[in-house]
Amino acid sequence: MRIEIQEEKKFVHQMNMLIRWGDMDAFGHVNNTVYFRYMEQARVE
Q: Half-sphere exposure of residue 34, counting CA atoms within 13 Å on the CB side?
């Protein structure tokens, strides 16, 4: 099954965000809990 999304409806909001050093673990992966902060920051913007 393939879902087609119209081009004008793909992004409601888009922003560039820097990944801070404290957002990553020892392996350089972004911590799972940080994604909630990213969503909150995008919502506030």
A: 12
